[in-house]
Amino acid sequence: MSRARIAVTRRLPEPALERLREAAEVWVSPHDRPLDLGELRDAVAGAEAVLTLLHDRVDGALLDAAGEQLRCVANVAVGFDNIDVAAASERGVVVTNTPGVLTDATADLTLALILGVTRRVGEGERWVREGRFWSWDMFFLLGAGLTGKTLGVVGLGGIGRSVARRALGFGMEIVYSTPRRAPPDVEASLGGARHLPLDELLRVSDVVSLHCPLTPATRHLIDARALALMRPSAFLVNTARGPVVDEAALVDALEAGTLAGAGLDVYEREPEVHPGLLERDDVVLLPHLGSATIETRTAMAMLAAENAIAMLEGRRPPTAVNPDVL
To answer: Edge-to-edge strands of the sheet including 49-52?
Structure first.
């Protein structure tokens, strides 16, 4: 009796691949890059489970190319905006993601971006590496402190809460914006965090950190109008998804001096970055490193593998996005 086939669209940490091979025949892309559409369709054909990454667009056409035997698309990411979940549900395909395991790593990197942009870390490092003259000076590369400042968290899921907890250690006050107010015990655990409408959060925050999923409602959530509400001394940080921010509007705000700076790990058209951002010293730019620790990436891949294997074995996957299909 032939074993089930699992397609993996890009190389994953070896422990996850070993786990998959215990349960099925596994095909792993030989290309260490995103597959083009034709390659992706060929890769998934005949698979009962597919492990995808955030750069793989999974729509109805790709699901049809896989075939009626496809049972699971296991996304190796907490976000799943690259997958047409409705199309998957219509075909009886379960979609899974990897929440929880990347929370701490992403929260840590968010704080790194906050410190990097407020304390001008990138500027200082470039100054030294370029061999430019410097001496200790009372006014040299002055940044902004965090103690007593207000952090505005947009999206208070696991990552947003973890960022808020870390910010408390820096003496910051927490405000947050979500569709529904968090339970009182959650607010209390975050130093008495206050729930505010987004517009009010933007007005009062010294640092705004984005942690909402990318949906039609949050695409360009931070646009020219939203940026105009922020203080000229405020900073914007995005470790969520790039299209939550209108990059052209962000560049305009920075050029106009109506925003003090930004720290970005994600972009509208990755890996492309708006050229206006590349030219600026008041922006810290990272290449989507939120979950980039050995431990976290391995845990993400292992969770995706367990999701796929559970479906093949007739068990409920740990983190189904569309559980109604089960």
So the answer is: 25-28, 5-8, 49-52, 72-75, 94-96
- Known catalytic residue: 270? yes
Is 125 designated active site?
Answer: no
pLDDT tens track for 247-270: 999 999 999 999 999 999 999 999
First-to-last CA distance in the chain?
25
pLDDT on residue 263: 98
Of the pLDDT bands very low, low, confident and very high (cuts 50, 70, 90), residue 2 is confident
User: Given a cut of 80, is residue 24 above it in pLDDT?
Assistant: yes
Q: Which two tokens stand for residue 171?
A: 């003496």
CA distance 248 to 229: 16
CATH 3.40.50.720 placement within the chain: 5-99+294-325, 103-285
**324: buried, middle or exposed (CB in 10 Å: 19+, 13-18, 0-12)?**
exposed
What is the architecture of the domain spanning 5-99+294-325?
3-Layer(aba) Sandwich (3.40)
Q: Is 288 an annotated catalytic residue?
A: yes
What fold, for 103-285?
Rossmann fold (3.40.50)
**From the candidates 39, 219, 270, 280, which is the catalytic residue?**
270
Confidence (pTM): 0.94
Name the catalytic one among 5, 71, 194, 241.
241
Residues 85, 107: Cα–Cα separation, whole Å: 27
Distance in angstroms (rounded) separating the CA atoms of residues 308 and 276? 42
The region, left, alpha or beta by phi > 0 then psi within -120 to 50, assigned to residue 231 is beta
If one counts every other C-beta atom within 10 angstroms of the C-beta of residue 65, the result is: 18
Phi, psi at 232, each rounded to 5°: -60, -20
Radius of gyration of the chain measured on its C-alpha atoms:
21
Specify the pairing of strand 5-8 against strand 173-177.
unpaired
Active-site position among 10, 288, 297, 306: 288
